[in-house]
Amino acid sequence: MTDATSDPSASPRELVMRVMPMPADANGNGDIFGGWIMAQVDLAGSVLPLRISRGRVATVAVNEFIFKQPVSVGDLLSFYARVVRIGRTSITVHVEVEAERNPADPQLVKVTQANLTYVAIDRDGKPRPFNTP
Ligand SMILES: CC(C)(COP(=O)(O)OP(=O)(O)OC[C@H]1O[C@@H](n2cnc3c(N)ncnc32)[C@H](O)[C@@H]1OP(=O)(O)O)[C@@H](O)C(=O)NCCC(=O)NCCS
User: Fold this and answer.
1) Which of 13, 20, 86, 115 has the CB geometry, 3.0–4.6 Å to 63, for a possible disulfide?
2) CATH of the domain at 112
3) Cβ(118)–Cβ(58) under 8 Å?
4) Could you tell me the CA-to-CA distances from 62 to 38, 46, 84 in Å, in that order?
5) Which residue has the least CA distance to atom 12 on ligand 1?
6) What per-residue confidence (pLDDT) applies to 132?
7) Is the residue at 58 inside a domain?
8) Residue 129 pLDDT
9) Is the separation of the CB atoms in 19 and 77 below 8 Å?
């Protein structure tokens, strides 16, 4: 097991995805479904593990998921990820989601954060040490 850096919190975050939720993604209150946000975070979180492992990955665990603020239709969501731990076959990433809202009076709001772990897998879906095709 090796940490991504000697101080993982110092690892730079990277913009990995942007998306704008639509009315079909909202619940009866007009807020965006938590499950929709979780799916987007799972996708965004996989970007760095896919790149680092150079192959397929599977989500093995969601270690933390916090909805800090509601998300609304029309918010422009930016997903930032950074690697916090690299193991033998697994990579854990921290994902932060920021919403850009209200174009007339622009605001940037941190809405969600999560930690997810991905495992590099081979053709049979078994864990694969990194850099093994
Ligand atoms: C991912 C999967 C292939 C791992 O298989 P496994 O036999 O459990 O693998 P292992 O026990 O050897 O663990 C593999 C790595 O995952 C890590 N891991 C396993 N369970 C974990 C957990 N709950 N939290 C964090 N890491 C975990 C291990 O520490 C290990 O990391 P390392 O090699 O870097 O030390 C298997 O669990 C699987 O197919 N799960 C379903 C994945 C999936 O379909 N995800 C989509 C959502 S349904």
Assistant:
1) 115
2) 3.10.129.10
3) yes
4) 10, 12, 14
5) 127
6) 58
7) yes
8) 94
9) yes
Whether 3 shows a pLDDT value over 60: the answer reads: no
**How many domains does the chain fold into?**
1
Q: How far is the CA of 128 from the centre of ligand 1 (A)?
A: 10
- If one residue of 50, 52, 60, 65 were mutated to test the ligand 1 pocket, choosing by the most ligand atoms within 8 A of its CB, it would be 60
The Cα-based distances of 97 to 19, 108, 121, 127 in angstroms read: 11, 10, 27, 29
Identify which of 52, 56, 90 to mutate to test ligand 1's pocket (most ligand atoms within 8 A of the CB): 90
* Amino acid making up residue 43: L
Distance CA 45, CA 99 (A): 17
Residues with Cβ within 6 A of ligand 1?
A: 58-61, 87-90, 117, 119, 121, 125, 127
Rounded distance between C-alpha atoms, residue 79 and residue 41, angstroms: 7
Cβ atoms within 10 A of the Cβ of 2, count? 9
The per-residue pLDDT for range 11-50, each reduced to its tens digit, is 789 999 999 999 999 998 889 999 999 999 999 999 999 9
